[in-house]
């Protein structure tokens, strides 16, 4: 078959022919598993950093300065528009709510992978935005 490798009898002897080789193979598999777990943790941490950064940026935008710009309409209403994004405070709050919900979803999807790293996550969240800290405190409370 194209793209498939067949295991030869010499490979059989190399990888599983004796108890010493079986122990060596088990050690290599365990090493590969540990590397996969580290890689998985790195990817999850990257996702969490991204969500934390986005949440902090939106929260900073909400608490930052606002400009009162008159929006042309029949009723001469004014709405607080944030200068850098051009979004209203309500829109930014909706985005912040969605980001927090998405962060909760990511954490819950990967909580079994995150549990061994809860102590390291404490280091990660110590300077994080309160919304992000809240999510991780909820995760911790599930396992305490």
3D architecture notes:
The chain has 144 residues and is mostly helical. It has a domain at 48-143. It contains six helices and two strands. Strands 1-2 form a two-stranded antiparallel sheet. A hairpin with a 7-residue loop joins strand 1 and strand 2 (78-81). The model is unreliable at 1-12 and 65-79 (pLDDT under 50). InterPro entries: ARM-type_fold. Residues 1-20 are annotated as: Disordered.
- Calculate Rg over CA atoms: 25 Å
Largest sheet: 2 strands, antiparallel
Content-based structural category? mainly alpha
By DSSP, the count of extended strands is 2
Percent range for helical residues? 55-70%
Query: Runs with pLDDT <50, length 5+?
Result: 1-12, 65-79
Give the H and E element order. Answer: HHEEHHHH
Physical arrangement of strands within the biggest beta sheet: 1-2
Name the overall outline. elongated
Average pLDDT level: 69
Oligomer: single chain
Question: What fraction strand?
Answer: 5-15%
Instruction: Quote the distance from N terminus to C terminus.
Output: 51 Å
Write the layout of secondary structure elements.
Elements (H helix, E strand, L loop, with lengths): L8 H8 L2 H45 L3 E4 L7 E4 L7 H21 L1 H4 L3 H8 L4 H14 L1
Antiparallel strand pairs: 1-2
Identify the notable features of this structure and list them briefly:
144 residues; mainly alpha; two-stranded antiparallel ribbon; 6 helices; 69% helix; elongated; Exocyst complex component Sec8; ARM-type_fold
Offer a quick outline of the entry:
This protein has helices spanning 9-16, 19-63, 89-109, 111-114, 118-125, 130-143; strands at 67-70, 78-81.
């Amino acid at each position: 078959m194209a793209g498939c490798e067949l295991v030869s009898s010499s490979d059989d002897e190399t990888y599983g022919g004796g108890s010493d080789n079986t122990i060596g193979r088990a050690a290599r598999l365990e090493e590969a598993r540990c590397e996969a777990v580290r890689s998985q943790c790195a990817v999850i941490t990257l996702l969490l950093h991204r969500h934390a950064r986005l949440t902090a940026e939106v929260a900073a935008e909400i608490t930052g300065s606002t400009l009162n710009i008159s929006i042309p309409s029949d009723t001469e209403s004014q709405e607080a528009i944030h200068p850098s994004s051009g979004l209203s405070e309500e829109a930014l709050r909706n985005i912040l709510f969605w980001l927090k919900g998405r962060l909760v979803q990511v954490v819950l999807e990967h909580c079994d992978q995150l549990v061994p790293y809860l102590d390291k996550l404490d280091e990660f969240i110590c300077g994080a935005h309160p919304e992000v800290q809240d999510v991780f405190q909820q995760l911790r409370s599930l396992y305490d």
